[in-house]
Amino acid sequence: MAVVKMQKLSVCASKKHRKEILEALQKTGAMEIRTRSDQQQDGDGIIHMDTAEAVSRFEKTAESFDKALHVLAEVKPEIMKGGGLFGGPMDISEEEYEEVIKKRDSLLEDAYDVLRLDKERAESLSTISKDENQILSLAPWKELPVPMNFSGTRETKTFIGTLPMSVDDAALLQIATEGLSGDVPVSADVISVNGTDTAVFVIAKNSVSDKVSENLRMAGFSRPAYVSSYVPSDAEEILRNDIDDQNTRISEIRDEIEKSTEKAREFKIASDYFNTRAEKYKILGKLPQTGHVFFLEGWVTAASAPKLEKLLTEKFSAFVEREEKGADEVEPTVLKNNKFAANVEGVLASYGLPQHGKIDPTFIMSLFYVFFFGMMLSDAGYGVVMSLLCLIVLIKKRKTISAGMKKFLSLFFFCGLSTIFWGAMYGGFFGNLIDTIATTFFGYTGDPIVKPLWFDPMSNPMQLLIYCMLFGVIHLFTGLAIKGAQYLKDHDVVGFFCDVCAWYAFLMGLILMLLPSDLFKGISGMEFNFPPVVGQIAKWMTIIGMVVILLMSARGKKNFGLRLALGAYDIYGITSWLSDVLSYSRLLALGLATGVIANVVNMMGAMFGGGGGFGVVIFILVMILGHTLNIAINALGAYVHTNRLQYVEFFGKFYDGGGIEFKPFKTANKFTQIKEER
Amino acid sequence: MSTGMALALLGAALATIGGGIGSAWGTGMAGQAAAGVTAEDPSQFAKVLILQLLPGTQGIYGLLVTFITLSRIGVLGGTPITDTNTGWMYLFACLPIAVVGLISAYHQGRTSVASVGIVAKKPDQFGKAMLFPAMVETYAILALLISILAVTNIG
After folding, report:
1. Which helix (H) or strand (E) holds A203?
2. Do A469 and A581 contact (CB within 8 A), yes or no?
3. Nearest to B57 by CA among B22, B95, B91
4. Does residue B67 belong to the interface with chain A, where contact is any CB pair within 8 Å?
5. Is A646 helix (H, G, I), strand (E, B) or coil?
6. Cβ–Cβ gap A644/B142 under 8 Å
7. Are strands A2-3 and A335-336 parallel, antiparallel or unpaired?
8. Where does CATH 3.30.70.2750 sit in chain A?
9. Which of A135, A293, A357, B19 has minimal Cβ neighbours within 10 Å of its Cβ?
10. What SS3 class is residue A190?
11. Closest by Cβ to A644, choosing from B63, B131, B145
12. Strands A90-92 and A672-674: what pairing?
């Protein structure tokens, strides 16, 4: 339970070793290299390598592999899934890595091939959709006996197009020959009628074509958007053949891509390799160098410092110096906890890591976390299900699971155990499942079979509410105690007495005065009879605490009036304590919610599934469905509200995070990680 | 059926109605936002699903109070109540979760929508995003508590 001590190292080494040193550092992944913006300028013999071009080249290469992998994953989805939801990077051996890297150039060609195939496929697909559109626009012209761009013979003009109205042959002839009399040399055919549009084919002798053209124009005649030089029925066939060709090509491409899927593993290794190199060159470009040497500084954990120093000095004859941290520097935070507490580090980190010199509350938090979670879910059956599920995944996926997911699942394994404990205390095993089965199917009528070890919250919610608040007070007082420990650690004794002890006295005095009162007795039904001396002590504790807070809480202020006013405002902060304590009533409410809904599920099952025979099947179905739903929704509720109790109530008393995450310079591990040699 | 029973049933029904409407409203809004984020980045599905579910609890709280009430007034076995005053008492006891459940679930839904926005932009800030809707829920929990305490202590 601690924030790990960090050490700043500066390294000065010969330029000829710079890439090897960076590679060694990257491989150990133990150092966060600091790059200062104020050192980025060249001058005084200091230069910087321009690596931007190399970085972008490597990044692009890695991206090509990634894109190729995505293409392959379309054919074979398991490629990108890794170990499923709980998967992490896959393990590879050092030899395999070396081997793949040796043929990286040919691999890149392969990746480009895959990308080219994919592009070709996209083109084919777009051709198909273009063809289909053309077939669609040809549909009204299927019966047209001439090519669509047929303009007429020497003696005639033709008009091929659409009219925005529904007409038949006779009406069309009427429209076309309006204003002309006698035996007009015009032939008018309706090719097809499409709702309100009519596809028409009109032939007119040159002598009347102008008039016909004008007539048609007046009627709204328009030429088709797509004109092919084939007879429409031929054109359609040509297009259909083209679609077939493209489809054949697509399936060929698919086969070829499928053949390449065996390269996926190598692509992944190569992608990580190029990302690793890009990282290296990014750092390389930021390191100040002279003609012969280069400099590098960064943070390592104090524990790993000697090993790293030895590596750098002995292997690369570098000059390594341990440095004090500068005034404006903040060292990154690494947490170290025992195996149980380490599981809640993620919960802590998502609020904010502790700064250096501050207390790491992970261990204390982990105890309360598991305790409260169990109280909220509070059903032994659900706890068994949750713990078992987590355990099964942890065991089955132990090789591929990512570190974060492992911690997450371990945490909920323990939360499940705590849930079993609280389920036993409250007497809940899938609600009242055992009693329901006994009464529904075996005609049992005696006392409840499953009895709570402690008491049934439904029968006495008020009592449990008091206990919840008691747990809340303990939780909050622990938070205050950590604040006190922090003051002592900082050698701020005045702060310890005024901001922590005074509050303890004030609050405990108040509680001791509240407990024997009629008000409390009326609410809780519990009676406390303290000897009168306790009452006196409580009174004085309250008064002393209050006076100290009033006078001292704003001790930094020079203006005495302001100081008193701020002190009074601080005393008003007692209301926040009240609301914080009341907030723990969610322990009761969520615990009840689980139990009662589980009972409702059981009751529904008994209602529909009584009577034996087929009823048993219905009963089982209702049980599975109902309890699954209840576990899901209440586990979520328990998770959210346990977090809330930690973040808002507990951390509110002492913790403000603000630490910076330790981001060591390391290899890219998007897909792969090299297995440690044993 | 006696007037008292009718009043108590009205209260029981209101608890589920209020909580249910609110939760349907809240999860509906949050679900729309969550679907948008999932369309852009399917890997955020689990996170936004949790955020969508947060306003869903009021409906469960309402159901809870309804169930306790039904079992206390003798609808689910036992002797049915007949006294009109007792019926009024059950009705009023159910009101906190009915009213607060509805309104808090609506506002929790709106907060969830905003939190889904956080996850969309900064997926690593999920812990904080989850906290904002959980703050709203506090008042639903307090209302639930009062309704439960009131219902279980009548008669």
Report:
1. strand A197-205
2. yes
3. B22
4. yes
5. helix
6. no
7. antiparallel
8. 149-223
9. A357
10. strand
11. B131
12. parallel
Is residue B66 within 8 A of residue B15, CB to CB? The reply is yes
Helix (H, G, I), strand (E, B) or coil at B62: helix
Query: What do you get for the CA distance between the two ends of chain A, in Å?
Result: 29
Scanning the structure block, which residue is given the tokens 């506002």? B107
Q: Determine the residue type at A493.
A: V
Give the Cα separation of B37 and B47 in Å (integer). Answer: 10
Contact B67/A596, CB-based, under 8 Å? yes
CA dihedral in degrees (A305, A309, A311, A316; nearest 10)?
Answer: 150
User: With 0-12 CB in 10 A as exposed, 13-18 as middle and 19+ as buried, what is A232?
Assistant: buried
CA distance A261 to A264: 5
CA distance A531 to A516: 10
Asked whether the beta carbons of residue A596 and residue B68 sit closer than 8 angstroms, the reply is: yes
Closest in A461, A590, A596 to B149, CB measured: A461
DSSP state of B123: G
Q: What are the structural domain ranges in chain B? A: 3-153
Question: In angstroms, what CA-CA distances link A174 with A5, A188, A588?
Answer: 99, 9, 88
Q: Would the pLDDT of A662 be above 70?
A: yes
Maximum pairwise Cα distance, chain A: 131
Contact A585 B141 (CB under 8 A): yes
| Per-residue pLDDT at A83 | 47
**Three-state SS for A179?**
coil
Token duo for residue A183 = 């035996």
- The answer to whether residue A607 neighbours chain B at the CB level (below 8 Å) is no
pLDDT tens for each residue of A506-520: 999 999 988 888 888
Closest chain A CA to residue B58 = A593
A474 touches chain B (CB under 8 A): no
What CATH class has B3-153? mainly alpha
Interface ipTM > 0.85? no
Residues 6 or more apart from B74 whose CB is under 8 A from it? B5, B80, B81
3-state secondary structure of A134: helix
Tens-place pLDDT, residues A200-241 = 888 888 888 888 888 888 888 888 877 778 888 888 889 999
Q: What angle do CA A191, A195, A201 make, to 5 degrees?
A: 20
Q: Can you name the residues that pair with A450 across neighbouring β-strands?
A: none
A599 to chain B: which residues are within 8 Å by CB?
Answer: 67
Of B68, B144, B153, the CB nearest to A589: B144
Evaluate if residue A678 carries a pLDDT over 50: no
d(CA A506, CA A548): 9
Contacts of B128 in chain A (CB under 8 A): 350-351
List, in sequence order, the alpha helices (H) in A287-322: 305-310, 316
Cβ contacts of residue A211 below 8 Å, gap of 6+?
Answer: A179, A180
Q: Where does A149-223 sit in CATH, by number?
A: 3.30.70.2750
